[in-house]
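> example.struct
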């Protein structure tokens, strides 16, 4: 299975007149992935992607107050179900910072594969448009969601997306879940600022439980492996192959 994450930069693409289907077609051609966590993606997705065989889940309306874009989790030839509540007590997910966390259950060939969580952690603003909080502190505040999700999925978990911060190692809230980085030792640049020629950073990540990481057979990502991604976004994707 090929699993990827990519920020589609939808709000800038709309401003620049780039159709929402363009990055989907780019991903279809260059990633050939089976499961993709798309952040900053148009919600709902272009209707054509259903005809291409994708099953897509997302928070209705996308990220609140963000012009109908958010996080999409898309699977091809597999069953995916949006998780809004987990556990016997039906703990409700994604209430702390609505739109930041999108969770799904994924089945392959009628066998449960994993819970997949898409993260988008923005720099939040208040009603006066002043910055409040920080993406990394928001990640810490989501601890309860992650704990409930891990218990639900029986230790098969993938967390991926745009964390809007530089992490040299697995962030503590995710390390506490036992998650590991299949890109450890790689320094992929996934984000290029359009206002600064030297603004090259890694902002996008894929983390997973060790049982899945042990099945990773290949990995690629960032501007070195996908330089053309910057023609349609300010981010480049990450991609892993998992032997299922």
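> example.seq
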């Amino acid at each position: 299975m090929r699993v990827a994450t990519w920020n589609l930069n939808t709000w800038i693409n709309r401003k620049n007149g780039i159709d929402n289907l363009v990055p989907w077609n780019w991903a279809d051609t260059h990633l050939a992935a089976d499961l993709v966590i798309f952040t900053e993606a148009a919600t709902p997705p272009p209707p054509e992607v259903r005809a291409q065989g994708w099953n897509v889940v997302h928070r209705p309306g996308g990220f609140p107050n963000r012009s109908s874009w958010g996080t999409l989790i898309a699977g091809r030839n597999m069953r995916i179900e949006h998780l809004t509540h987990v556990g016997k007590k039906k703990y409700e997910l994604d209430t702390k910072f609505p739109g930041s966390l999108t969770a799904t259950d994924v089945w392959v060939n009628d066998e449960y594969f994993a819970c997949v969580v898409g993260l988008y952690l923005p720099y939040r603003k208040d009603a006066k448009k002043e910055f409040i909080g920080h993406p990394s502190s928001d990640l810490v505040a989501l601890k309860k969601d992650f704990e409930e999700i891990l218990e639900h999925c029986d230790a098969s978990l993938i967390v991926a997306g745009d964390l809007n911060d530089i992490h040299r190692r697995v962030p503590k809230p995710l390390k506490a879940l036992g998650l590991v980085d299949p890109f450890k030792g790689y320094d992929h640049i996934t984000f290029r600022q359009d206002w600064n020629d030297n603004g090259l950073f890694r902002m996008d990540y894929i983390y997973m439980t060790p049982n899945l990481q042990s099945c990773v057979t290949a990995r690629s990502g960032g501007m070195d492996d996908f330089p053309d991604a910057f023609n349609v976004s300010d981010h480049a994707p990450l991609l892993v192959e998992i032997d299922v």
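> remarks
The chain has a mean pLDDT of 93.
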